[in-house]
Design goal:
Length: 403
């Protein structure tokens, strides 16, 4: 393999996998390695990464602050679509990969690298997400996926490799978790979590307090929406990233957004993940509440019929596909006019709608009332029901004839 590439840009997180990949790439390809770090809200994890990557052998380290772009151009469009994978997963890891890959490819062009690399395993979803994004940007880029090449079989082998080569890693044999964190969520996989009968250890939750330790008094929050996007919290206008950070703090102390799910991976197997999405969970409930009064019913039903397909496209890595982009236009159009405020009650892991208001509201008590009104004649329902029942009556008549 040596000599086949001269310079590689690695999507670097500082975790177990990417920590040893720098050394492995240099050892096996004899190439220069540039570490790329996307700051999408990992918090204090980002600051030490430059020194750590250089110590591990990187020629250079590029760190880009992408938090606002992440929230504005990736998380919010996904929220407008109401995307949830298999009914439980809010796609926190999935939605980050296309942005990381795009920014990584920008660095690859800047440093004139002839290859890119990532730390995703050959059994996981991220290898697909990263590489579909790479190829959509540059169909001729060379991709190095170490997990599909090296002879290291699992996390224990990686930990041993790191120890042998003096590479500092946080993972241990007792806590060999695969962890992914960003502004929208954090996930834990592997280790004891692979035993589905066991409750997750409390140390697999870091973005929220346990429900038992949440306040006994409810927290109320008002979120303002404009055309489907959240724009303010308690009357204060905030940028997308700042708004999400604000709601994460509220969600954290009220134990909002914990999910323990078994999902269907892209490659065909099932896997268990522990997810925390505090601010995102609050926004999903709030957005749905304002949609209930400001979005046309048939538009909502059409949008909802396509939501699961949209979620699959995000999960499977097709963010840059023409079908996702086409669906996005429909989702965005459906969200036009979804403007107003929602008041939510946060209490021990629950998000409860306490009120909603919109100048574009389609709900009017004088239309829905059972009292006499001027916009609806109850006698009209007779013909409507008979026409709607026609095919059912014909079916029943044919069944009787066949008896």
């Amino acid at each position: 393999m040596k000599g086949s590439v001269k310079k590689v840009v690695l999507a670097y997180s500082g975790g177990l996998d990417t920590s040893i990949i720098i050394h492995w790439l240099k050892e096996n390809y004899g190439c220069k390695v540039v570490a790329f770090v996307a700051d999408i809200g990992q918090g204090s994890e980002v600051k030490p990464l430059r020194a750590k990557a250089l110590k591990s052998g990187a020629e250079a380290v590029y760190i880009k602050d992408l938090k606002e772009e992440f929230a504005r151009d990736f998380v919010f469009p996904m929220l407008r679509a109401g995307a949830v994978y298999e009914g439980t997963y809010l796609l926190g890891t999935s939605i980050a990969r296309p942005l990381i890959a795009k920014a990584q490819m920008d660095v690859a062009r800047e440093v004139r690298a002839d290859a890119v690399s990532h730390g995703a395993t050959g059994k996981g979803n991220d290898q697909v997400r990263f590489e579909l994004a790479y190829y959509s940007i540059d169909p001729h880029i060379k991709v190095i996926a170490p997990w599909r090449i090296w002879d290291l079989k699992g996390r224990s082998d990686l930990i041993a490799y790191a120890k042998e080569h003096g590479i500092s890693v946080a993972a241990t044999k007792k806590k060999p978790y695969s962890i992914d964190r960003n502004l929208f969520h954090i996930s834990f996989e592997g280790g004891i979590l692979e035993d589905l009968e066991k409750e997750p250890p409390e140390d697999t939750y870091v973005m929220t307090v346990p429900p038992e330790k949440a306040p006994d008094k409810a927290t109320y929050v008002t979120i303002g929406f404009k055309d489907g996007d959240p724009v303010s919290v308690n009357g204060r206008k905030l940028s997308p990233a700042k708004l999400l950070e604000n709601l994460n703090r509220l969600g954290r102390r009220n134990a909002i957004g914990r999910v323990d799910c078994v999902e269907s991976r892209i490659v065909g197997m099932k896997s268990r993940g522990i997810y925390e999405t505090p601010g995102g969970t609050i926004l999903h409930v709030g957005r749905r509440a304002i949609e209930s009064i400001a979005m046309d019913g048939e538009i909502m039903h059409l949008r909802d019929s396509l939501t699961s397909r949209y979620a699959e496209l995000v999960y499977y890595g097709y963010w840059y596909s023409p079908e996702r982009e086409a669906l996005q236009k429909l989702m965005d159009e459906a969200s036009r006019g979804v403007t107003g405020t929602v008041r939510l009650k946060l209490y021990k892991g629950n998000v409860i709608v306490a009120g909603r208001k919109s100048d574009n509201s389609l709900y009017h008590p004088d239309f829905a009332t059972f009292e006499e009104d001027t916009v609806y004649d109850q006698k009209d329902a007779d013909g409507f029901i008979k026409i709607s029942a026609l095919r059912l009556k014909l079916k029943a008549m044919m069944e009787r004839r066949r008896r």
